[in-house]
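User: Okay, second chain of the day. Same drill as before: sequence in, structure tokens out.
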Amino acid sequence: MTTAVGIETPEGVYIGADTWVSNEDGTGFNGAIKAWEHGPLVLGFAGPIMLCHAIAYRLNILTVPEGTLHSWALIKLREYLGKTLTHKERKVGDWNLLIGYGAELVCLDSDGTVTQSLNQSQAIGTGAPFALGSLATTAAINSTIESPISPEGRIQLAIASAALHCNSTRLPISIVHTKVAPILRIVPNDDPSTA
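Assistant: Same drill. Structure tokens below.
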């Protein structure tokens, strides 16, 4: 399988994944893209590489309407994948898809479940438990230091941790992120001397 990680920030969602593809006999190769941009979305995949490619290459540019990413993924994306993927592809085995849009992150599982992040991060794939431990540690460290670890740095550490403990996760990794439009804030000038 693989390890893919997503982090929510006010600036957008960051998703990273390793590039290793493993065969049933334990051999494998590097070079698979399992984290990619798709219009306004960023996606990360864990599961059979054939299905990853089917989703990546057949997914039309989809727009997320007003409302939440969670409800869109639960209804529209599930319906779309059900119509787009072949019967064989739908039955290929367990898989997970991280979906980032704006500053929101959800995960769609092969059983149709859509989950939201409870702590601004998610990890999927065989290395997920190790990656989640690393994400929790770096989040705790970031809350106590002056120069926090960047989202890209946290993803690198999380996937490196998974690679140390899981033979189906290997470096290098790819990282993509959404971009949230800055919000213009007008701050009243309370200084009477500048009036």
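The chain has five helices and eleven strands.

User: Thanks, on to the next one.
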